[in-house]
Description:
- The structure is a single chain.
- This protein has helices at residues 25-33, 51-56, 68-74, 88-95, 108-121, 125-140, 166-173, 190-196, 212-221, 232-236, 245-251; strands at 2-4, 10-12, 20-22, 40-43, 58-59, 78-82, 100-103, 148-154, 158-160, 177-178, 187-188, 200-204, 226-230.
- It is of the alpha/beta class.
- Strand 1 (2-4) and strand 2 form a beta hairpin.
- It starts with a strand and ends with a helix.
Amino acid sequence: MILQDQMKRSIRLTVLVRRIVSLVPSQTELLFDLGLGDRVVGVTKFCVHPNEAKKTKTIVGGTKKFWFDVIDHLNPDLIIGNKEENYEEGIARLASKYPVWMSDIVTFDDALDMIRAVGHITQTTVEANALTSKIELGWSTLRLATQRVVYLIWQEPWMAAGAGTFIHSVIEKIGWHNAIEAPRYPALTDDELIRLSPGLILLSSEPYPFREPHLARLRQLCPGAQVKLVDGEMFSWYGSRMLNAPAYFKSL
């Protein structure tokens, strides 16, 4: 069977998928939620959900540095990765030996398409379609009061989620307006942040672990803005975690 992934790459599967290596935390969680935990043989050290993933599966390195000898020992018949999360050189090396299916997720719809595609590849189409239907229903009535938002992912320098990111898509989907018009993850000076005049500044729990002292500094810089620590997984994890996101957003 020849399939096309979200990066428009063709991959060939010659056997029923039984030995999966997942290189992306959110997609690892998805595989388990589709009932595929027994077929997952390898995960990254960042695959923290569900708890059993790191406890019962072989660790194959990180998202940006794979342990190729460990992966070779596992002899997977499918590897699932992501364009942004993983690194091109490592993926190319794995793809020379194994079927590697890559997601490329920028929008809400991309995420739903990924779930359906993973369901198709792993013969869990019924479960995947049921999951996407629940996600769509939960998000269909989600509309928060309009706010001008800056979503920070790093400090020294400040870095924010801009256009062309899944986080941007989520911010706009729930009714807010992303104040960052630059693409990807631009760096910001204090003065640039002040000039953006945000009504709401969100400090993500990942990749940088913002804490209370950062709240105080930003409240001093932008006294007219609300500043909140938020669960980065709810904004950036595409997959089954999207099912829980609407309730979380309403609680902010």
